[in-house]
Design goal:
5 strands, elongated, single chain, 43% helix, alpha/beta, five-stranded parallel beta sheet
């Protein structure tokens, strides 16, 4: 009998104690495995494409305070990946709204698994209409640059990110807006005041 493939979790958590606890709770679970853990955002970003997680479990405290309201913008390749908050201390409800689920420090293994499953399933559900998701701050920057006629390389250089990251953001912009052409994105940028008419003439 063929064994069912396990769902993969990546942890972004600076506390070795909490990481060890999550690994211990999920050790031997038939459906879930911890594929990797990272203490810092930058290392997690670098390895996301290689690890192919189904769920990214993030301690909101590990995310730079100014970026907490834009956690998905830190992981442009995480379009279909559920992002779940791992809460060990007080985190405001406004910050938690952007996550697909919330796991609390005192949850037991069955409760954690249930929350991970709910988040993963909810993320796989097709959206009813395009435009259900707001563009992140970085996606708005890239959309404005595309509308101004910049190439992927020029955008990458201007924003100090890789060309691959620009392409990932552009895919997310297309998915969220439903707009596939540069001219369509330009109109969108103008209508949403991301650029001025003079910048595209």
């Amino acid at each position: 009998m063929e064994q069912k493939k396990k769902r993969r979790i990546v942890l972004l958590e600076p506390s070795p104690l909490i990481v060890a606890g999550m690994k211990a709770l999920l050790a031997g679970h038939p459906a879930w495995e911890v594929a990797g853990s990272f203490a810092e955002t930058v290392h997690c970003q670098e390895r996301m494409l290689v690890l192919h997680p189904d769920v990214l479990v993030v301690d909101p405290v590990a995310v730079d305070y100014s970026r907490r309201f834009h956690v998905r913008s830190l992981f442009p390749d995480a379009g279909s990946i559920a992002v779940v908050a791992l809460v060990a201390s007080y985190v405001s409800a406004d910050v938690l709204k952007q996550y697909d689920g919330v796991v609390e420090i005192n949850d037991d293994a069955p409760s954690i698994v249930k929350k991970l499953e709910q988040a993963a399933e909810a993320r796989k559900m097709p959206s009813d209409a395009s435009g259900n998701y707001e563009l992140s701050e970085r996606e708005n920057e890239i959309l404005a640059a595309v509308a101004k006629g910049l190439t992927n390389k020029e955008i990458a250089d201007a924003l100090n990110i890789s060309v691959h990251t620009v392409i990932s953001h552009r895919k997310n912009i297309t998915r969220k807006t439903g707009i596939k052409t540069v001219s369509g994105l330009t109109v969108y940028a103008l209508l949403n005041n991301l650029i001025d008419q003079s910048e595209v003439e």
